[in-house]
Structure formats: structure tokens, C-alpha cells
Amino acid sequence: MRYDADMMDSDLPLLHAIRNAAGDPDARVLSWNRRVLGEGFADAIAGGEGLILHSGTLANSKGKQQYQLVEKICRVLPQGREPGSWLYWKREALAYQSGYLHGRFSGIRAPECYGVTYTDEPSARVFIEAIPDAQPTWKAGTHARAARALGMFTASLAGMPDIERYDWMAIGRAHSWTEIAADTLDGLENLKDDSVLSRWLSGPNLTRTKNLWRNIDILRSALADLPKCFCHHDAFNRNLLFRETDKAKPEIIAIDWAFAGYGVIGEELAAAIGAALMFRDIGSDEARDVTERMFSSYLDGMRTTGWSGASVDVRLGFCATTAMIFALGAIGIWLPMLSDPELAPVVKEITGAEPDQFIENLSEIQGHFLDFGEEAVELARC
């Protein structure tokens, strides 16, 4: 949609962001285009626009030039009003404002931020760098390359004392999701005939899931003893963008820092693999091979960046958090949504699949996630 540039005077935050992106506080906007890119998890539930691409032409001392930037709108959900919430609505805006996301990582980077503003709605408007580069088709090698970058990212922040500095940081995804799912997991026996859960936890997976939940304290205790680090917590293929450079390897830009916060070594890889499997970006038939290749690459990335700790600690962190998030915690997140027919459009918006297709895939990959949980319990007992 094209707008008259004079309309920019009524949207000063956007004008300032465009000028910041251009590096010229006096640049004049000559044309302005606005295109909705899509909705995020929160916006799919709350409604409204999530991501907007702004582009056009501006004039400055160097003449006319094209500009592009992305606006992310962060809205409030009822369960996301407080900093301790997994869905805290201000987290990404505060993360950019804090400066924490810039200049300290290896392997990946955050987009440049050109401004943050808040509305009376309330919501936050975050203006960030657009990544227009053509993206690769993700294959096993692409996932492995991303996993290596995430290993470098983990190692560059492992053990850093200043991860406790900011209140906006989320508690680890594994802990948050299992806490959300606790009541449901406690009552799995009473839900075994539920129309969704009976399909999700088919065959031996119901018993295996209940057994893993009984061992949750073992997993939590094991995580408490592992080295801590800062995590993106949602760095899977849909949130990792490649940009070609004049160097031998492209850089990887991680978008969507809405879940960023505390974690342990190995936990970043859990989201990279688990979310890609859940959203069918990695097929269930290749889950084992791709997972092991990604783990090897992740560990290699950590070693490259100076990690000298025990490999078994990384394996324990990865296995435990993968199982806690996707074999256990996901039940508390997804079961209410999949059980409500009115939320079917939301499920499709988030996952790209009809609810029945999504449930079928969850059933196929549950055993894979349970394998990691059972491995983690054995490692923790050693």
C-alpha cells in the first residue's frame, strides 16, 4: 500500500526510525510504502498486525536513495503483562533498548534497531533492520550450519555474570513451559480419552510421557548444576536469516527476541531442533539423523569459540531441555488451543497446518522427544 509522504508528519516515530536507518537526521521522505508481512505467535492470538515492511525513497545530502525497515508491533496478552511471564509483551522492546543485543555475540547477531516507542493501547513499536536477501532452502546442511553458529553464540555468553542484570529476561523455556503444563501433566491419566491427547500420546507414548513427568525433579536438578548462559530461546529456521557478505561465509541474523533470557548450555539447540520438527520444517522421518548432525555442529561451534567444558554437560542440557519443552511443556501450551475449534484459524496461522495435520505430526515426533528425556534422566543419574 502506497502513502503520500506528507502523511509521515503524523507518524513521527516512523519518520525518526527511517532517518536513523539512513544515518541522516535531516533526510526527507519522498515516498512511503507499507506492507504487512505476517503475524507472530502473540498477534495470531490477540489479532492485529505483527510485522510491517516500510519502504520507499528518501532524499538527503547524497541525493535520492531507497530505504527499507521492519516494524514489529508487540501487543499485550492477558498472561503477558508482567516481566516474569513467558509472554511478557515488553521483553523484545526492552531487550533492544537495553543495548544488550548488540556487540557481544559470536555466531549470530540481532538486527540493527532504529527506534522503540510505546503507545497507549498499550503496545510497543520496534523498528529494526530489514533483511531482503534471498534465503536458502533449508536442508540438513543448512540446519547444521545454523547449529554451529548457535554453538558459537552459546559459548560466547556461557557463564557471563551479567546475564542476571535485566528484569526483562525470561526464565529458561524448559522451566517456564513445564510450569505452565504442570496441572495438565499431573492429570494425564484423566485425560487419556481426550480427543486430541489420545491421538497425540498414542501407543506407548502416554505411559512414557507420564514416566518422564515423574522424573521432572531429576531433570530440573540437573539443569541447576549446568553452566548458565543467555539464550534467544526461539532460534529455529524461521527466525534465522542469512545475509551474504564479502567474506567466505554469510552472517546469520536472529530475529524475534521476544522469549530471550536465561538458559543453560545446550538449551538453544533444543528450540532450533524442536520447533523445526514441530512445525514440520524437519521431517519426522529424518529427525534422528538431522538432530545428531546438528548436535555435533553445535558442539563444534562451542569448541571453536573457546568452550572447554565437558561434552556430556552440553548433551545433558540439550536432551533435558528438548524433552522438557517439547515432550512435556508443549502439551500445556498446545492442548488448550487444539481442543478449541474456534482457535483452528489461529493454529493454522502459527503452524501453517490444519489442526488435524499438526496433531498427527505431534504424535509422530513425541517418541523422538521422549527418547531425549529418557537419555537425560540416565545422564543425570550418572
Please tell me about this protein's structure.
This protein is α+β, with helices and mostly antiparallel strands and 382 residues long. It has two domains: 2-12 and 34-59 and 67-129, 2-Layer Sandwich (Phosphorylase Kinase, domain 1), CATH 3.30.200; 140-381, Aminoglycoside 3'-phosphotransferase, Chain: A, domain 2. It has helices at residues 12-22, 41-46, 91-98, 140-157, 173-186, 197-200, 205-214, 216-224, 267-278, 287-304, 311-338, 344-351, 355-381, and strands at 2-3, 28-38, 51-60, 63-75, 108-109, 113-119, 123-129, 228-231, 240-243, 251-254, 261-264. Strands 1-2-3-4-7-6 form a six-stranded antiparallel β-sheet, sandwiched between helices. Strands 5-10-9 form a three-stranded mixed β-sheet. Strands 8-11 form a two-stranded antiparallel ribbon. The model has no long low-confidence stretch (mean pLDDT 91).
Short description:
By secondary structure, this protein is α+β, with helices and mostly antiparallel strands. It folds into two domains: 100 residues, 2-Layer Sandwich (Phosphorylase Kinase, domain 1); 242 residues, Aminoglycoside 3'-phosphotransferase, Chain: A, domain 2, CATH 3.90.1200.
